[in-house]
Amino acid sequence: MNANDMFPSKYLKADDIGDKQPVVVIEKIEVETMPDGNKKPSISFLKCKKKLMVNKTNWNTLIKLYGPDTSKWTGKPVTLKTMEVQFKDELVNAIRISGNKPAAAAPAAAAADLDAINADMDADANSKTEGEDPF
């Protein structure tokens, strides 16, 4: 059993992406209230079962790609990838947004990456107690 499967999340994690680089299309942007009361933006993507909590780095990337008017981001493609970043005193994997398609992946391969990510999430959901919301 994978220990990460014990507490599923409705948000994408770097482990969900792995070494894939799916091209996803922005469906909507929302503001969510975190358990500590702070508000953070999240993005839903077409055909993706989990949302991405958007940090300042990814937010600024989206502004650079598509401008500051978030209403114009809907329907725009982005590539999700993981990279190692400094967080406090350690290196951790994080999801980064890019406007560039992965160099080695054709659109069909990027769609296959997203299908694989969703299949992994489905497998996680099927391992949960019946009737429990997996997200």
- Arithmetic mean of pLDDT: 82
Shape: globular
Low-confidence stretches: 128-135
Assembly of the depicted chains: single chain
Describe the structure.
This protein is of the alpha+beta class and 135 residues long. It has one domain. The protein is 26% helix and 30% strand. It has three helices and five strands, in the order αβββαββα. A five-stranded antiparallel beta sheet has the order 3-2-1-4-5. The C terminus is likely disordered.
Topology, element by element:
Layout lengths: L13 H4 L5 E11 L5 E7 L6 E2 L2 H11 L10 E11 L2 E9 L8 H20 L9
Antiparallel strand pairs: 1-2, 1-4, 2-3, 4-5
Question: Can you describe this structure in just a few lines?
Answer:
This protein is α+β, with helices and mostly antiparallel strands.
Distinctive features:
single chain; 135 residues; alpha+beta; five-stranded antiparallel beta sheet; 26% helix; disordered C terminus
